[in-house]
Amino acid sequence: MQGRFWRFGLVVLGLIVVLLVGGYGRAILPTVTEILWDTYGVPHVFAKDARGAFQAFGWAQMQSHGDLLLRLYGQARGRAAEYWGENYLDSDRWVLTMGVPNRARRWYQLQSPAFQSYLEAFAAGINAYAQEHGNLIDDEVEVVLPVNPEDVLAHLQRVLYFTFVVNPAQVAGVEEKYSAGSNAWAIAPSHSANGHAMLLANPHLLWSDRFLWYEAQLQAPGVDVYGATLVGFPGLAIAFNNNLGWTYTVNTHDGWDAYELQLQDDGYLFDGKVRAFETENLTLRVKQQDGSARSQSLLVRRSVHGSVISQQDGKVLALRVVGLDQPGVLEQWWDMARAKNLTQFEAALQRLQLPMFTVMYADREGHIMHLFNGQVPIRQAGDYQYWSGIIPGETSKTLWTKYHAYQDLPRVVDPASGWLQNANDPPWTTTFPQVLDPTKFPAYMAPQFMHFRAQRSARMLDEDRQISFEKMMQYKHSTRMELSDRLIADLISAAREYGNELVRQAADVLESWDRQTEADSKGAVLFAAWTNEVKFPEVFATPWHADSPRTTPNGLANPQSAVKALETAASKVKQAYGTLNVRWGDVFQLQYGNQKLPGNGGFDALGVFRTVWFAPQKDGSFTSIGGDSYVAAIEFSNPIRAMTINSYGNSTQPHSQHNGDQLSLFAQKQLRPVWRSRREIQAHLEEHKVFKK
Known about the structure:
Keywords: Hydrolase, Signal, Zymogen. This protein is α+β, with helices and mostly antiparallel strands. The protein has 20 helices and 31 strands. Among the domains are: 1-29; 256-321, Aminohydrolase, N-terminal nucleophile (Ntn) domain, beta-sheet knob region (Penicillin G acylase, beta-roll domain, Roll), CATH 2.30.120.10; 482-600, Penicillin amidase (Acylase) alpha subunit, N-terminal domain. The strands form 6 sheets. A 10-stranded mixed beta sheet has the order 20-18-17-8-7-6-5-2-1-31. Strands 3, 4, 21, 24, 25, 26, 27, 28, 29 and 30 form a 10-stranded mixed beta sheet that branches. It has a 4-stranded mixed beta sheet with strand order 15-16-9-19, with no helix packed on it. Residues 1-28 have low confidence and may be disordered.
């Protein structure tokens, strides 16, 4: 009898081992920490504990982006001009005026003991790589070493709060030509072809500097998460695990205000009394071409509203920014990654440590969610337009001090439509029939509009009632120009009625055009040129209206004026390219590093879902500088299906073969499979790093 129980115990033990090892080919409780690098340069971190995962992730980021990471951290310290010269002086002034380095030190002290240790481990991984592979790091950026946890938090602040929430261009009132954006979809089982929820992640950022995405997998006891983060961040920002996933879009969140102060004596008026400014005298050091340094003083003044950002002609502006007293976004991301269901995920979200961004969510249980996330100030009065202007700063009536609670924010879970979308439009148009009523929320919560890319997004989701995983990826790459569908029939008709021979030739080209911005599309260049010759939104006969959010604006307000603009555009196109029928890809090209390929996709304003930003070149061509970057398509089947791409590759180090190695896939509108199990990774293994401690 004893032998029988012994044999039974061996069988049970064997079953437990099989369950633990599973598809990953290793136990859930590993004894070492290691990185398995796949053939696309994606690091798969398998760690014996959370601290090991953070340390390995710091190492991995240095191997892939060491030069960039150190340069970004140097800027976050406010010492970039000291390290690298005059070109960084404005950056240092902004960082120091916003108090980033000092606040980073305070934030570090406010982390939980566990997360302090994780930040220390991440920094230790960075430093260990630099010590072991200093020959692979640019000599110019080694001055930043060693990195400390406060550098990580300073970089986080500079990017999240003082780039995304507010940046110097916004403060100065300068229109940003290439503003951060994204597409995001969540599809419920009722709307999918095979009954599984699906998620589409698709941020649009510049293909350089602090906007680059880094793709990775982190596995440790209690967590197995795959996704991407911005270079220098110690946790994954857009990600999925075995149960759920989430992504972000830049939302219409107003997280900053500029207050005009009334000066009196040496202070400013506030509630009828004169208050003194808090002042801080700083010294900037600026590296000169001969290697010497010059000193420059910086006086930082702060009012009860925040830092003074400008003083001209007696007009003083102070900047107030949300979330500077909320230091927990990194730990919130870590807990989101460890969540197993919607309840646990929302428990992390409810802390509201992330200052902005729409959150789009889907899970294995079939739930989908759209949250207009952000630290939204509670304001006494005024609508979104009012708070987008200059605010009187002499009274506490305009000074917000608290934020709306989680339950106050626009949120949709499991809509009857079976789908949710956001393409940087306000939350009211996340699905149709519309679920959210703007009148039920404060007038300052979000504006009302739905631009053409968002309309294109909703159109594709609404018109296909049973979307397959493959079809979702096909829709992701749609280059259809929604704007053209609203205007082109009227434009062609007017061209034939009012135009000369050149204009009638242009009408023929537009009529035969496929309405796409594919590489071989003929007519897209001409139409895009025409949009540069007319004024928006005045060109439309019918303006956008909330009662018809997906069919307005439309029609030409002044057909004869539109024809004149077409004549101008046609002349310019013919002169520049020799023909009106020029291919889109001959003019608009995908470029990263030394690679140049025929382009496809187009600008947000044209209503192209596959967004690519192109910058003009001296020879009349346009080359890509941003737009679609990291893309992930996830189906919550069993096992999970996932496809992804990082348009510019997963490394910027000059010696790396992964610097730009995915551009050809991007040009072909292809995603690549995600490898998550150890067996899959080992089948595509490029490098293996084992940490001794």
